[in-house]
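User: Sorry, folds how?
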Amino acid sequence: MITMREKLELEELEKINKLMDEEIEDNDKELETDNRFGATILLVSYCGIGLFMFYKIAELLVKRFS
């Protein structure tokens, strides 16, 4: 069985733990970022590279068959 002093210490530690958990959750929310802009730039660059490769292959095929 625990004494009254131990019980009070335990309750105090639980309160501190709860406060720390809330602070950690708040910090996690602040660190979330929105990567839509970066993803859009990456998508556009990949499309550009694909079009460039398509253009070069088409150019090589036209030179070979004409």
Notes: Residues 3 and 62 are 90 Å apart (CA to CA). The chain has two helices and no strands. The first helix runs from residue 4 to 31. The chain has a mean pLDDT of 88.
